[in-house]
Amino acid sequence: MSRRDNLHLSLRRTLEKDGWAITDDPLILVLEQTLLKADLGAEKFFAAEKAGRKIAVEIKDFDSPSVISELEKTMGQLQLYQWALEEQEPERQLFLAISQAVYIRHFQKPIFQMAVQRNRINLLVYQPEWEAIVEWIAH
Question: Is the pTM of this model over 0.85?
Answer without folding.
Answer: yes
